[in-house]
Amino acid sequence: MAKYEIEVWDKTGGKLADIRPICQNLQWSRTRNDAETLSFEINQYLYNRLVNALGYKNNPLSFMEAGRTDLRVKRNGQYLFGANLISIAYSGDANTVKKTINATGYLNYFSKRYFTGSYTNQYQEDILWDVIEQVETVTNGDYGIRLGNVIGGSRIRRDRTYSEKEVKSLFQQMSEVINGPDFEFTADKKLNIYAAQGVYRPSLRLAYPGDIAGFSWTRSVENIANQVIGKGSGNGDDAVSATATDNGGAGYCYLRQKIATYNSVEQETTLQQNINAVVAQAANPFEVPSLTIQNDILDLNQLGVGDTVIVDMSGAGDAELARINGPYRIEQISCSVDSNDSEAVTLTFDDYNIDDIISKQQPEDTGSAV
Fold this sequence. Notes:
Elements lengths: L3 E6 L5 E4 L4 E9 L5 E7 H11 L15 E6 L2 E15 L4 E9 L8 E10 H12 L10 E6 L5 E10 H10 L5 E4 L4 E5 L4 E9 L4 E5 L10 E5 L9 E5 L1 H7 L3 E5 L6 H15 L7 E4 L14 E5 L12 E13 L5 E8 L3 H7 L1 E2 L7
Parallel strand pairs: 9-12, 13-19, 13-22, 15-17
Antiparallel strand pairs: 1-2, 1-5, 3-4, 3-20, 4-7, 5-6, 6-7, 8-10, 11-12, 14-18, 15-16, 18-21, 19-20, 20-21
């Protein structure tokens, strides 16, 4: 059984208290190259008792306030992630009053920040960090993000021109091009950048029947595109444009086109990189399994987003299920935690370009993630 703590941190970077004892219906998720989510409920009577004891009776919003408060989640004494408090929803009836807390990871700090600048032949990791440094120099714009580690792989140089580009999508689009980096913001506000985030864990095998309590996935062509027509900045004949085609995918399930618009992209090479990555992932029918794991068997202090494990559904004796058998990369971890800190975990996977990903990942150590 795990032990959770939910720490409240103020805008100056000071830790105020652990509020886990009064939190109910705790849920969290971590997604590769996206913001974490955190939600829980608090009985208002218990909350008032706590803030009164801590000396915040006359000004409870100075203890926990939307937009100002950060929450850091600990599991068995180790930080999992940090999040900024986004909303406090109040509800009640004749018998009780409660508040529902919603917070999202530090990447979402930058969903409302914009950047203008240009880079030529610069390492992609350096571009990402320079963007953070520049937007944090603006008055009241320093969130306290600092550079952590740049890990693994040969560094790729890029040309980029941005005009009032939203910083969150700038990061995500950089990660989505071929050989683009992965990134994460740690609980203590460090930006880590990876050639491929995660650890290759061939010893961790999730089997059905067995460790897998339930599963779901869809095999569909609804969202595939084996020819992508990219439109960049400009109008009419002056617009930047490029096309990427996967002839194998088109031959397998007919030509399926998609027009992708990148209004902030001014250079054809950048546009081509973006649409090459789209067609590489979307040219054929794909399966993204989501697996519910038996309660309390995974060590979420070791197993993380980006890790590659073995998923084996061949034991079910079904030829279609048996396709899910091999290395899969964890794209998302979703966890519900009850009042006793028992965990119900759902893992969402992908196997796109898995051999290349494994070659860039850290090797497994002697510890176990189960």
